[in-house]
Amino acid sequence: MKKFIVVLLLTFGFSTINAQELTWHTDVNKASDLAIKNKKPLMLFFTGSDWCGWCIRLQKEVFKTPEFVKWANDNVTLVELDFPRRKQLAPELAQQNKNFEQMFGIRGYPTVWLVTPSLAEGKVAFNRLGSTGYVAGGPEGWLPVANQILNNK
User: Fold this and answer.
1) Confidence class of residue 72 from pLDDT cuts 50, 70 and 90?
2) Sequence-ordered alpha helix ranges (H) in the chain
């Protein structure tokens, strides 16, 4: 059935991309290890996934597009730091997210920080490249902003 739907969509000129092609990490330590290994910065996405309208809009208009998927896979390691209101996070995940919220001085959602992790004396340090939030214009509006921040490395 899935093959039929894809063929039908492609036949009528629709292209689809599955958001599962992206890996959004929730454990910053594991994501940092991966980013260091792959020599890619982290993209820290601070979101209120189940209540923040601008966060949901950023996901829909940018993060779930083929252009973003390609860009993210080529350029960054993705981390979602969620602050939901209706669902409960595991206590250690909620504490980690709160710690990073304080560390980066998050004042509103969505906020996206691009950082380069490095190991210093057995601890992960984060070189802050820059931050952004919702940018109008879909991937054509958002990606140039992100690329400009990445060029600060």
Assistant:
1) very high
2) 2-11, 28-38, 53-58, 66-75, 91-103, 138-150
Contact 110, 133 (CB under 8 A): yes
Q: Are 76 and 114 in contact (CB under 8 A)?
A: yes
Sheet arrangement for strand 123-132:
24-25, 77-82, 42-47, 111-120, 123-132
Which of 23, 55, 52 is CA-nearest to residue 40?
23
The span from the CA of 151 to the CA of 146, in Å, is 9
Greatest Cα pair distance, the chain, in angstroms, is 56
Share of the chain above pLDDT 90, in %: 82
Structure tokens at 83: 């602050």
pLDDT digit string, tens, across residues 95-151: 999 999 999 999 999 999 999 999 988 899 999 999 999 999 999 999 999 999 999
Which residue(s) pair with 81 in the sheet? 46
> Residues 6 or more apart from 47 whose CB is under 8 A from it?
55, 59, 80, 81, 82, 83, 109, 110
Which spans in 12-137 are helix H?
A: 28-38, 53-58, 66-75, 91-103
The pTM for the full model equals 0.86
